Amino acid sequence: MSLTDQPVALLTGTNRGTGRSLAQELHRRGYRIVSLNRTVTGEKWLDEQHCDLTDPQQIRDGVARALAPTDRLDVCISNAVDRVLDPIADLRPADWDRSLAVNLTAQLHLTQAVLPALRDTNGLIIFMGSHAGTRYFEGGAAYSATKAALGAFVETLLLEERNNGVRACLVSPGAIANLEGDGDPHKMTPQAAAQAVASMIDGFPRDLLVGEIEIRPATLPTPPITGIDRLLHV
Asked: PANTHER family recorded for this chain (predicted)?
């Protein structure tokens, strides 16, 4: 397969966790991987461009450099995230601003940078959301607020770009064991989450659009509370 014929996937945050597993899975399936990473690993197969997602110019320049060899892009996965888990009373303004910049504002700049190439290939853009966008928790104000807003952004993008041939999808996962050494059996592994997303990319018909897909761990640490007994725990 020539360089120009090989499908291309651009991902953010491939240095570890789910992003790395996504890159590995798509590489195994024949995609050429290009990455935007703040922390660069130096691994050639990741074809990394150093990029701080809080800087719109770095996003635009990173995308341009990543796509320069062929100007082709089939899949874009926005995976990188800033996670601040402080109570509102203690949340530093700088942490709030950085969360907004990485988790939300960067999505606009990344989308605008990749749209022309995705329109040319009738490509797919995937945003990694979170259950935190609909299931709120103490200490999660910055994280949940940005993930909730991301849902509105992706749905609007879907409505605007579907007739231009671009499919947009929000993937909303539950708990993933993203940190090194986390072997919690009640969380999804990054590899499992990556296989699910890659199967959607390669396995769904091109004339079918999945606006949002939710994935969850298969087991819970304690039996779930069901029925009217839920009223005792709200």
From this structure: EG:BACR7A4.14 PROTEIN-RELATED (PTHR43975:SF2), ZGC:101858 (PTHR43975)
